[in-house]
TrEMBL record:
Protein name in UniProt: BadM/Rrf2 family transcriptional regulator
Domain of life: Bacteria
Biological classification of the source: Bacteria, Pseudomonadati, Pseudomonadota, Alphaproteobacteria, Hyphomicrobiales
One Gene Ontology cellular component: cytosol
Species whose genome carries this gene: Phyllobacterium leguminum
PROSITE patterns the record matches: HTH_RRF2_2
Recorded GO MF terms: DNA-binding transcription factor activity
Amino acid sequence: MKRDSRLSSVLHALLHMAAHDRPMTSEALAHCMNTNPVVVRRTMAGLRDAGLVRSEKGHNGGWTLGRDLKSVTLRDIHQALGEPAVFAIGNRNENPQCLVEQAVNAALDDTFHDIEALLMERFGRLTLAELAEDFTRRLAAYKQNKA
């Protein structure tokens, strides 16, 4: 079963963008993320529509952050990606008249709803600034260990 890694990929790209003081091209971001520039452009378009990033065409153009890192939460980004399904598991709907299937689906639906609500609440508290600070700490520790 394939996982949807767009949120992780977008966070990766946004942190690279935050670390640069100039626009980053789709090609540069694709290199950082080990993907195709077309994938970067398609994904970033949704973020641009949500006001999270901006794009400039032409010489010295590229992608830049559209908002301060402290004001962007993981929930904002998840929503800009179209709110992809959080779970790869789901209900069986082979026989909707089956009372056992109805009972199982009701229990799973309630549980999935509770877990997704908790996840979205936590995503709403976690900002890009916090991720950037964690990256900065990790980079400093890495450099210190290499010295």
